[in-house]
Amino acid sequence: MKKFLFLFFLVPITIQAQDTLSGDTLAFRQKMEWFKDAKMGIFIHWGIYSVNGISESWSFFNGQIPHEDYVKQAEGFTAQNYKPEYWAGMIKESGARYSVITSKHHDGFALWDSSLGGFSAKDNSAAQKDLLSPFVNALRENNLKVGLYYSLPDWTWPDYTEHTRTIKRYRIDEAPDRWAKFLNYYQGQLKELMNRYDPDLWWFDGDWEHTAEEWDIENTRNLLTRHNPKVIFNSRLQGHGDYDTPEIGLPVMKPKAEYWELCMTMNDSWGYQHTDLNYKSPQQVMDILVDCIGKGGNLLLDIGPKADGTIPLEQENILKELGKWTGKHAEAIYGSRAGVPYEHFNGPSALSKDRKNLYLFVRDIPKDGNIIVKGISNPIKNISLVGNDTELSQKLFCKVSWNTYPGILYIQIPEDAQDDYYTVVKLELEGEINLYRENSGAIESND
Ligand code: GLC
Question: In this predicted model, what pLDDT tens digit does every residue of 349-369 receive, in sequence order?
């Protein structure tokens, strides 16, 4: 009887607990899971701006070049050495799990052969063909998720409101029919992209130019979600996105948002600019990646291929170096969750999804070879190096029997274990991580 009563009281609690994770929340988490696990994606800005090596779209918008001359670059956009399988192979090799490509930037230049007219690689450039389809196919063949960047503003399309910073074609309240034509055009393009490519992720940009109502964002989102309920949206949708999209600014504090992705250039440009040689070193890119992983986010790292379709050597080199590191340390990267606060380990770290393994990312081995970990209450089953399974020696200081303070743990890393970028130390814990975050230390028991 006692047993029965106990069960009786337990049932409603269980139902309630499930309830909070039901419906939208659970479905939302499920749809976001691959994204949360992915940790790295490759962004691609490929367009006619690579011909002169000027800033994508903004160069004419801001008056650095007349629109007419900007558009003329299309004559030099040959794509003659474009090897989409090679691109996808490089992306795979880097360790990225998805890629986001500019199907259309603010200049309106479409990489696919849109049947709705407009400015496109097929109809208006030297390439004379659809450049998007073979890349999407190559990504899928490599088991990579497909993201499509799509600019809401189209500064070339005659029925769009803005043309340049100083030339505004019309105001929506003065010409609502004209705006309706534009909405029809952009939503038509999205239907085309959705039906043809069925992307896993939409990466919108340029939402700042109009309000959510003006963009008709709810309908746009519904349209794309009806087609694929699991599709993910970045946040540049006037408040209607699924995850935060910081740009260039690596978050200093761990973001509050559970889902986020930092988009970042390798040099200072999104598209290919031959004059921009201010590349980050592979180490610096790795620093950014590890920081994102440690704070529970993703890095969307940009490449800007040349007009002939080749990837600049500096960019390819970064992808390859990333690949060496991500391949060796896959277990600490994919599917991991944000690590422990810096009070516990003075550097980035990550936790396995079940929270039973803690991974410490060690950039440089300290002069006495020891890293220090504090405030982990769990018994530690094993400490090893990720990538070669060497067991590491440890020494615990300041642990006494008369209180629960877990002591200060010194872990010795052999000199020859230093990775070229980040050495990763794995702590296998007994149970889920239990952090000790008190200012204790006084006697608690006197046995
Ligand atoms: C900005 C810029 C754009 C770039 C994008 C990448 O919104 O307008 O040129 O493509 O960021 O995040």
Answer: 999 999 999 999 999 999 999
Q: Is the pLDDT of residue 186 over 70?
A: yes
Q: How far is the CA of 45 from the centre of ligand 1 (A)?
A: 9
Q: Please name the amino acid found at residue 351.
A: L
Q: Is 290 in the pocket of ligand 1 (CB under 6 A)?
A: no
pLDDT at 116 over 70: yes
Q: What is the CATH number of domain 34-328?
A: 3.20.20.80
Q: Is 263 in the pocket of ligand 1 (CB under 6 A)?
A: yes
Note the pLDDT tens digit of each residue in 215-254: 999 999 999 999 999 999 999 999 999 999 999 999 999 9
SS3 label, residue 137:
helix
* pLDDT score, position 141: 98
Average pLDDT over residues 398-421: 92
Q: Which atom of ligand 1 is nearest to the CA of 263?
A: 12
Locate the domains of the chain by residue range. Answer: 34-328, 337-429
Residues 6+ apart with CB under 8 A from 376: 340, 344, 358, 406, 409, 427, 429, 433, 434, 435, 436
- Residue 199: predicted pLDDT: 98
Are the folds of 34-328 and 337-429 the same? no
Q: What is the DSSP string of 287-314?
A: HHHHHHHHTT-EEEEEE---TTSPPPHH
| Best probe residue, ligand 1, of 54, 247, 266 (max atoms within 8 Å of C-beta) | 247
State pTM to two decimals: 0.93
Is 248 touching ligand 1 by the criterion CB < 6 Å? no
Residue nearest to atom 8 of ligand 1 (CA): 206
The answer to whether domain 337-429 has CATH 3.40.50.970 is no
Ligand 1 in contact with 270 (CB < 6 A)? yes
